[in-house]
């Protein structure tokens, strides 16, 4: 008489052996996985491939380059799309808020539009989030205009209700101003920060940088 238990064990053993010698089922590589392994595949570029978002220019996606509280100055490597270490700040200051750029924008200095994002927590470099423009910080860096958008994280419950920079506590704005005035002093570089402008000015600046980027793309395609 056959032993049902032994028969079941035999069947189970045969099933395992039919899967693989290691006992694990064979891996099926679908087209998506194969595509990601292809040497011809190109990594997405955060400046050009990430959409700015349907709510732009008032609400937009932005890429974080530098986390709140960091003394390391990271920046976008425009060729590779990676976030690189530019330098460690010479002064004993840290970034007061997350700092990054707005994709699919460009300014006269050939860089994407800069943005300082007010929110509760630091964000890892290379991450992107939704932000709302609340103001513009006009700035002159070594004689060249280098304006910054001031924004809040649209998905942070502590900051998302702010609509204009005049709603931000004056002390917080003073901290932001002082940081940018001081962070290059020990490099003997002069930075002048002008009076903060309202949300309308920020939205107008973003719209202009979006239009400039579109013109840049058209011109690049013609070459």
UniProtKB/TrEMBL annotation:
Cofactor(s) needed for function: Mg(2+)
Molecular-function annotations in GO: inorganic diphosphate phosphatase activity; magnesium ion binding
Reaction(s) catalysed by this chain's protein: diphosphate + H2O = 2 phosphate + H(+)
Region (Disordered) location: 1-23
GO cellular component term of the entry, any: nucleoplasm
Signal peptide residues on this chain, from the entry's feature table: none
Top-tier EC class: hydrolase
GO biological process, one term: phosphate-containing compound metabolic process
EC number: 3.6.1.1
UniProt xrefs under InterPro entries: Pyrophosphatase
Assigned keywords, A-Z: Hydrolase, Magnesium, Metal-binding
HAMAP family cross-referenced by the UniProt entry: Inorganic_PPase
Similarity comment: Belongs to the PPase family.
Protein name per its UniProtKB record: inorganic diphosphatase
